[in-house]
Amino acid sequence: MERQWTKSSWQDFPALQQPKWPDKGAYNAAVEEISRMPPLVFAGEVRALKAMLAKAEEGRAFLLQGGDCAEDFSQCTAPAIRETLKVILQMAVILTYAGGKPVIKVGRIAGQYAKPRSSDTEKVGDLEIPSYRGDMVNSPEPTPEARVPDPRRMVEGYYKAAATMNILRAFTRGGYAALHRVHAWNQEFVKNSPMGRSYERLARHIAAALKFMECIGLDTDIPQLNQASFFTSHEALLLGYEEALTRQDSTTGDWYDCSAHMLWIGDRTRQLDGAHVEFFRGVHNPIGMKVGPNHDIGEIKQIIARLNPQNEPGRLTLITRFGKDKVEKHLPPLIRAIKSEGFRVVWSCDPMHGNTYTASTGHKTRNFDDILQEIQCFFEIHWAEGTVPGGVHFELTGDNVTECTGGGRNIVDEELLRNYQTNCDPRLNAEQSLELAFRIAEMIRS
Ligand code: PEP
Ligand code: CO
Q1: With CB atoms 3.0 to 4.6 Å apart as the test, which of 8, 82, 129, 327 could cross-link to 322 if both were Cys?
Q2: Which amino acid residue places its CA nearest to atom 1 of ligand 1?
């Protein structure tokens, strides 16, 4: 018989990648405080997202998920949030037009504050200090004191997520995300960026479609055109925080993790008998699961059966992140195994985490062409296997950073230090993100 699930039952299972909170009392007080705060999202919104993901699984919608690797508390400002939202909206318009289907916009935002790390410590000069684990745990500042996990940071993370959520709702509802504005931004990109010219044709087609709607007298003052639906997501790593925001929906009696609309399980914490899988099996959110090269197909099948025993469409998104050199080896057997079981999943591609390398300057980076190549392989493999490439997952920012190499301005290693801001993994900047959207558009043009 299946064990009874409660929002705390994960505590009976081994939880990897949890900080070593030095003061248990302070930790308990922090999660207790969060558990009394209002939820950040509402179950009805979460169900709407799940219904849209069910369409993505059938190829009738497309998932675009993106944002920071690790959100930075100091970047919880209107301009920073606006610029990230802006680039995701711009990418979505390009992909909607090219793919001829709705694009589901999901930010890695308003809660992406906790990071799994491959090593517990890092070397800074001669000193070995605890690794940075996200702003909700410790500070990126490279001193032993700053790296001590502080549970008050979880409370601060809750408030920062709430403030972020609030301005996102305002921007997406209040006219900022209106289609004609987003397209005007795309036209600006096409005009001003070195590679932009090659995308002029597609941008002109979109302009013509908008003009056509205007000409036939379609009222543009309608929510479909002047509002955007935008969802939030993060890696649900800190299970105490997630439990504190897990609430029972009064209309259905079901449990939802109301820290975000969609949560994902990282590649390092998806053990079949681990605490993360236990926690996730009981909440009704759509969930993602990262799958990297070190996976066991048999275990993946068992995890899927545990997370989605009813085989509910839209419930589970498999986010594969193999890297350009390994995708051809790993993706086809995984697809075939899932297909032969009849599991319903949305297939999404994270072309970031399998393509990380260290530049000659010592910066952790990723190359634009490698990212593009993994995406291209992802699409082609799914088309060949007769399955649906349902989405993409990026680490990106609206900021003009220099963290990934390549792209239209051909950022080279020596330029990385110019504006390398990330506390964790390297992100595509706004131009690189848009360029990627145009390149994907060329691949999927229907
Ligand atoms: C991430 O998405 O930032 C991450 C840590 O990914 P993964 O679990 O795939 O390594
Ligand atoms: Co990352």
Answers
A1: 327
A2: 69
